[in-house]
Amino acid sequence: MKVFILENAFWNLLLSSVEVYPKECLGLLIGSSDKSRIVVHHAVVFQTAERFTRGVHFPRNHIHQGVLCFLEECLTHLKIVGDFHSHTKEADYRPSEEDQEGMDEDQVYVIVQIYKKKKNLPWRYNRQKTLLAGTTRDFYFKIGAWHKRLPAESFKLAQIICPFAAGFRSEKR
Ligand SMILES: [Zn+2]
User: Fold this and answer.
1) Looking at residues 134-160, what average pLDDT do you find?
2) Contact 160, 108 (CB under 8 A)
3) Do the strands 2-5 and 37-45 form a parallel or antiparallel pair, or are they unpaired?
4) What distance in angstroms lies between residue 173's CA and the mean position of ligand 1's atoms?
5) CATH number of the domain at 2-161, out of 3.40.140.10, 1.25.40.10, 2.40.10.10, 3.40.50.620?
6) What's the gap in Å between 145 CA and the centre of ligand 1?
7) Which segment of 46-55, 89-98, 114-123, 146-155 scores lowest on mean pLDDT?
């Protein structure tokens, strides 16, 4: 599975995570998909989510239904392809057990790990191209996209393709 993250969605993933730090943000991923790839066009934050430093609570079904109706009416070429949320602890880029209970097959779940950076790092992929990490002025980010095809499988990292992010450097001050 390959997950393409378009520029607009990439920025929203970072901004939404920074906005509520050190609490966690949560939102929907809107885009298109076929059997081998998912293209994320938009990352739309849930404004009704209640944010806590460990976890986010939100009326998922209610929000999904509202967004589904909106997409059917206004953006017929796009659909909900998954969720995203942030994790604000170091070494915590994997979905928790609680996260996995709310995750379905054939959707993608992006986790944005964010915490205060210790040094500057240029944006780049890991060797398997399944994690995308780098820094801005204040923060270190690590982005992973989790998915599974069958209910009995465990969640795995998908390959991320985000040409805009790779090589991106923030201005140093
Ligand atoms: Zn989580």
Assistant:
1) 94
2) no
3) parallel
4) 32
5) 3.40.140.10
6) 12
7) 46-55
